[in-house]
Amino acid sequence: MSLTGTAFLYTLIVLAVVAVALPLVLWSRIGGPRFLRGAARVLMLVFAQGTAVALVFVLVNNANNLYDNWSDLLGTSNHVQQAADLGADGTGGISLKHLPRVRQRFTQAQGPGMHQAGGVRVTQLQGRVSGVNAEVYVWLPPQYHEAAYAHRRFPVVELLPGYPGSPKSWFGSLRATAQLAPLMRQGKVAPFILVAPRTTLLPGVDTGCANVPGTVNADTWLSIDVPRMVMDNFRAQPAPKGWAVAGYSAGAHCAIKLAVAHPDRYRAAVSLSGYNDPIGERDSLAAQDPALRRATNPYLMLARAAAPPAVALYLSGQPGDGYEAALALQKEAKAPTAVHVVYIPKSAGGHTMALWRPQVVPSFRWLSMQLDQRRITAREAAGAAGAAKATGATPPGPSTAGSTREALASGTASRAASGRKR
User: Fold this and answer.
1) CA-to-CA distance for 132 and 81, rounded, in angstroms?
2) What is the DSSP secondary-structure string of 230-296?
3) CA 45 to the chain's CA centroid
4) How confident is the model at residue 142 (pLDDT cuts 50, 70, 90)?
5) What residues pair up with 315 in beta bridges, in sequence order?
6) pTM value surpassing 0.85
C-alpha cells in the first residue's frame, strides 16, 4: 500500500474511528482477571494513540510532500549505482556532445497536483554520467502542443525540493502548475518546461547537490544527466540561455550553488529561504568535510571565483532564515553576477509551504525576464515587488529588523547554530 496513496489514508481514518469506538463500547464490558482487563484497556489506548499519530503524520506528509514512499521514510532508498571521481567539472572527461541521445518513456504521474494543468509525467532515468538512477517529473506548458508553437523551443526551470522532500512538492503543495498555467496562457509568465528531479539519493542524508567521489555525484545528476535527457526528449532551449534552477530550503541552497558553479549550464536561479553554508542542513553530506563544505558554499564560491559568473540570482528570505544569506551574496557579487533580494518579514509565517507558495508567481515573473535576456531594471523590479505585494507574496521591505550579522550566512556558522531541520 502506497505511503501517499488514498487507500492508505482512508484505511487510517477507518482505524482511527475504530480506535475511538472500541474503548467506548468495550471498556466496562471486558471480563476476566483484573490483570487481563487492565492489559486490554492499555492496548486499546495504545491502539488509539498509535492510529491518531499515524493519521496526523500522513496528513502532514501529504500536505508537505516530505516522503514519497516507504523506502524514503524508512531510510532504505539508495539511488546511486556508482559514484566515480568525475573531476572538477563533473564530466569525468566524457565528451558530452558525443554521448548517444537519451530516449525515455514517460507515464502519467500520480499524486496531489499531478493531473492539474495538463498533467505531470514521470520517467525513471539512469544517469549515464552520474551513476544515479532515479525518477524525474516533467510538466509541459500550455503552448507546447499548440500548432503555432510546433517549431518553438521552450525555456526550462529545474525545480528542487527541500530535505526531506519530494520533487512532487512543487506540483502538489506549492501548486506551481496550477498557479503558472493561466499566467502562461495570458503571456504574463514565459511558457517554461518544468522539470523536477529526485534530490534525495541516499538514505538518511542530504547530498547538498554535491559530487562526493565514491559516495554520490548529485551535482552531475542535476546539472548534466537531467538537462541532457530533457533536451533529448523535448523541444527545450539549449543551456545556458534557456535554463534556470529554483528551490526552497535545502533545494534553495542547491539552486544557487548549481548556478554559481555552472554558468555554462544555467542562466538564473531562485532561492526561497535558502542558506549559503551547507551546514545550514544538519544532515548535509557536503558539510561533513571541511574542504567540501567550503567548495559548495555559494558565498565563498563567489569570493574565490577567478571571474564572476554570468548568472542572475533571486533570493527571498526572512530575518534568521535566508535573508542574511541573500544579503551576503548581494554584497559579494560583482558584475556580471546580478543578485535580487526580496525581504520577507517574520509576520509572513515560518519555514513552511504556506510561506513559499505565494512566492512562486513573483519568482517566475522574474525568471521570465531573465531568460528573455532582458535586464531587470529598477523600475521593473519595483513593479514586480508591487505585484507581489498585492498578492501577499512579498511583504514590504527591505529591512534589517531582527536580522543577525551577515557573517552568519557566509560560512562561519557552527553546526549548533544551524537550528532548523530543512
Assistant:
1) 6
2) HHHHS-BPPTTTTEEEEEETHHHHHHHHHHHH-TTT-SEEEEES--SSGGGSTTBSGGGSHHHHHHT
3) 39
4) very high
5) 271, 341
6) no
